[in-house]
Amino acid sequence: MSKRVPYEQVEETIRKAFIAVGMDEDKAATCAAVHAESSAAGVESHGLNRVPRFVEYARKGWVNLDGEPRLVKAVGAVENYDGQLGIGVTNALFCTDRAMQLAREHGIGCVTLRNTTHWMRGGTYAWRMAEAGYVGMNWINTESCMPMWGSVEPSVGNNPFCVAIPRENGPVVVDMAMSQYAYGKLGVYRLAGKKLPFPGGFDSEGNLTDDPGKIEDSMRILPTGYWKGSSLAIALDLAAALMSNGMTGSDMDGAGNGSCGGCSQVFIAFDPDMFGDHDENQAKLDRRIDAVHNARPEDPDRPVAYPGEHALANRERSHREGVVVDEVVWDQVCSIADGNIDVVDIASK
User: Fold this and answer.
1) Looking at domain 2-179+223-276+315-337, which of 3.30.420.40, 3.30.1370.60, 3.40.50.12640, 3.40.50.300 is its CATH number?
2) Which has fewest Cβ within 10 Å: 63, 173, 236, 345?
3) Active-site residue identified among 35, 46, 293, 319
């Protein structure tokens, strides 16, 4: 069951939960805002629902609450940092902002990060770049949690990738894992007692299924685009590891630091007006999006939308009417905020 809770109450409750586990107040406020905004945008799998798992990881020492990005090397518009297993959200925000600073100086900025932890919603950082006026790209590698095409066991990460285009009438933002559904989204559907809109993986007998619980049990999530998704996943994994001089997904498999513990990340910001006029560029973007909106829909009641359009609508409604939360997860986070930090992550199996 789900309900709507005022945005400010969601953010404040998450902030208290992070303070309860030992995070300092500034970082707690920053992370709470990111988690609450993710849920507000309709990505509760990496917002409120991830709070119990973060608390568990912090208690186990898999996240270094005092870790900060440390500069390893800088070459022109490219910088490399060691995340020291710090908080994934604050590490990623630092790198996003630094990439934009480099782009202001050079037209393009690239920051790579190794030895960090889960960044939660990858789109957070792409949206941040787009809303600041930059074309943004960012991606992460993960431990092996998805079968390569032709395999029956996890052999590559689902390695989320994001790209964002700054548009004054609404940024265009793609935020996607290389699996048809991320594990967090499977958990959202399972907790709600719902089937997936489309088949998302295989059950333990090898049958394609829309049952999220059966896919979680088998760990045979479906790569996006079948062999294409798993091919892109391995390429993103290797590129992130090389560019950051960090670990690959298979290196993480034996590290014992939980999901994404010690992962590698890349953040790229690009000045979209470096070679063109700003107003002309915006008009070009609007013409292209108009063509998307004018495409004849399969269902007349569901107009065709550009990537990120639904997230904007969800965010506006959540701030106006309250954030949709799973009641069981909400009660658990409220309990953590009250100091009961002995938690079991019910959003994942």
Assistant:
1) 3.30.1370.60
2) 345
3) 46
